[in-house]
Specification:
mainly alpha; Growth Hormone, Chain: A
Amino acid sequence: MAPALYLLALAVFAMGTSEFMLAGLVPDIATSPDVSVGTAGLLTSAFAVGMIVGAPVMAAFARRWPARTVLLGCVVIFALCHVVAASTPSFSVLFATRVLAAVANAGFLAVALSTATGLVAPDQKGRALAVLLSGTTIATVAGVPAGALLGTALGWRATFWAVALVCVPAAVGILTRVRPPTEPAPEGSHAGASLAFELAQLRAPRVLMTMLLGALVNGGTFAAFTFLAPVVTETAGLDEVWVPLALVLFGIGSFVGVTTAGRLSDRHPRRILGVASPLLLLGWLALALVATHPVLLLILVFVQGILAFAVGSTLIARVLYAASAAPTMGGSYATAALNIGAAAGPAIAAVALSGSRDLGPVWVASVLTGIAVLMLLPSLGLIAPRNQSAEVVG
């Protein structure tokens, strides 16, 4: 793998830390501007909405700009948003910075996805995606728990300052090591396709189906993950110090899931989706039923991290294959699929949290994942792993 790919993963680590860290900070954030826990949890949805809007818009505007310029600009804007968020006493301003930071994150990820897959062989998109997403999973292993501990010790604002600082080496790495391509696009490729042609690919049934499945699975993951802290402290009755540990377990599981899927999803997508998707559904149901037992809860958090990210990353790789005729906009389609779910999941879970107490979000995760499984299983026969143009759920 090209060294530039790992530098992109470093930036994704900083952004992933910010995106996921609210799972351990929601109760603390709620006390500062004096809002409810459910309202504070909507900051996750705000971030996801910014990602949904920002991914296609940023990709469309930046498709003719040098990739390094776009990537560097997005990292700088992202860092500045966290400086403002750490300084403001207003929840409205904090909400706005999450949206703007998400737009920058979306622009970065959309371009990074296209850049990353351009650094590897055409049949290794899943592996390149695994390296890039490892930045996110390492964020859940190290960055998010560290942020939770820092927030517990010094307050949630210190965590936002820390994210801004982490962006500095990422920006330097992009500036010095990410280079524009020097080789012309292969003959017959879609590298010079017009924006209208690329947008038209979004209407392809395979692209739409795979995006919908990715959104449902990610929605379930974010519904449960965003409100994991109340489940750990209230339902299981553990002290707050156990929240970072639960996040670490989920992060380790997600790293295992992404790494495994990255090695297998290019050749065996049917096996991953056909086995892991039903297990993911059963895992959410089991977690809701045994959450009062701390040991079982922590074990399931780890297992669900593996399954959620194995299924999710495989589906997003399918989006990239399905949208291979849209080399600059394909990354935005994958980003939108991830964050449609990341916006809807916590929003629905926030309502369930007020109506069904702490386990409401886990039941939401079960329902969303169940819908995905019902849609996915009849479609598995349409996945053709050796034919890259058809290598998606459709």
